[in-house]
Amino acid sequence: MTPTDLGGDVTVRLGIPDDAPVLADLYSDARRAAIPQMPPAMHTDEEHRAYYGRQLTEDEITAWVAESGGEPLGFALCTPTFLDGLYVRPDLTGQGIGSLLLDVVEATHPDGYELWVFESNTGAQRLYERRGLTVVERTDGAGNEEKAPDLRMAWHP
Predict the structure, then answer these.
(1) How far apart are CA 114 and CA 34, in angstroms?
(2) Domains within the chain, CATH numbers bracketed
(3) pLDDT tens-place string over residues 3-12
């Protein structure tokens, strides 16, 4: 299924600081819906809003927002070398929005990028593997807040 099958045009635009509260809430909802594939988030919704408020004002951070009719459906948060987060509204997973966002990430990172994914998040791993990312590191989770095993994956064209 492609994003346009959602009943309207899905576009991707550059995120702006004013998007922070909506993207933070989308993140919180996606994390809650992903349990048990992902461990529970370690912070409150308010802390997520503050975090995204800071992130969207950083020069090194770029947010790409997939939307339809002005309504955010998902987003990707990137640095010049990392995909720091890819989240899709829970009721819209599996409909091509994540792939559309990855198209933009790949186009804006022509030399490649890396990401972290929880080992338990097999659905995301399958998406990333279909996109050509490979596992370059496995950890026991000691380095993340959730203390959950994770994988560093890389895409190098």
Answers:
(1) 21
(2) 3-155 (3.40.630.30)
(3) 545 556 999 9
